[in-house]
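Need tokens for this chain, all 315 residues.
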Amino acid sequence: MAARTRAPAELVLMATAARRHFIDGRSKIEIAEELGVSRFKVARLLETARATGVVRIEISVQDDIDVDLSDRLRDRFGLTHAIVVDTVEEDPAVLRRRLGQVAAELATEIVTEADVLGLSWARSVHAMTRELSRLPHVPAVQLTGTLSRADMDESPVDLVRDVARIARGPAYVFYAPMVMPDAASARALLRQRELVTTFAQFSSVTKAFVGIGHWSAGASTLYEAMTDKERGQLARRGVVGEISGIFITAKGKAVHGPISKRIVAIDDTSMRSIPEVVAIPYGLAKEPAVRAALLSGLVDSVVTDSSLARALLDS
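Here are the structure tokens for all 315 residues:
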């Protein structure tokens, strides 16, 4: 029989202290009183128990959340929340649906009755709202106008009203396209009462959910709403992506100009004042735009897929 590395009495004392602390949840002071030793002795016993393998702590997550990637992404970009869904799926529709489920769970977890919820028009945000089943009693605010898409049968007005019904709170909405023909027509539209009322709520929004578009065909709804000439103008100014109608460069700088004056949506100043903006991007193709968004100061939290998260961490 091999010799014991520790005396039996000490081993039993160590195991007893460890069980009472790690399993029963007792404090070191309580254990010291129960065992008739000093709290410093208890601290040494617990430290030795972990160092020698008497106590082994295993963190097991049964869900499909990649905790390590989530933690690294949060630290790398200084995010409030980073939730990375571990998936090898590449089909955009499947990714949107899965991220929408997780984003809905996050919304249920972090939105409180003290919040005002802002929602932008994006396919990933639409996927999230379809998964929501409960929220605290909060107002819901529309942050952007409408962009027509064949694969989306609901408008941002429908989206915000659906969320407001779930939350049993007021809905602040407006009927307007996201892109107007010129700056003058955009200014005229913004004087309408329902837009004035809704835009006045932007300063009250405390949590917002948005999408991120990469400035390329098929990766941004706003890109597809522009002419070839306008796309070229923005590309020459260094635009790599957009967030709720806010154009951003690779370094995260917001781009202003004649085209941005035609956008009917929240602006970068108002978005930066929101305490937590949660983006729901997906797909490797969007990596440059998502990186720019994370550098911009416009986004505080992210729900994304593991492939995109790794690309953000590796580049």
